[in-house]
Amino acid sequence: KMTTESSEFQIDEVELTEEESQELPPEEGLHDSMSEATEDLDDETLEQLQKHMHKTKVKTQIHQIVAAQDEDDEKREQYADEFVRNFFIRFGMKKTLDSFERELFKQK
Hints:
It is a single chain. By secondary structure, the protein is mainly alpha-helical. It has four helices and two strands; from the N terminus they run ββαααα. Helices cover 73% and strands 4% of the residues. β1 (2-3) and β2 form a beta hairpin. It is rod-shaped.
């Protein structure tokens, strides 16, 4: 869950197989089929549907941002670990390197 000052979002993770993602209609076709499907809806229901679609789009965008940040954090952590290891190796600090790797292994 992600909470902001005025509203709360819950990010739902959805994974599509490659086959499922290829079955999705292109965006232009989606708008055409949506207008056909919503012709018989009253204004209130249509407005609720549009709000739900907007929230879903926002959730998807937030999920993509969070996933990218998580990936960046993992990369930064790996680079920091490599830097520290290389530093210890370069200056012949074998015991310190061993201790570092033991502690790192315990954390993971």
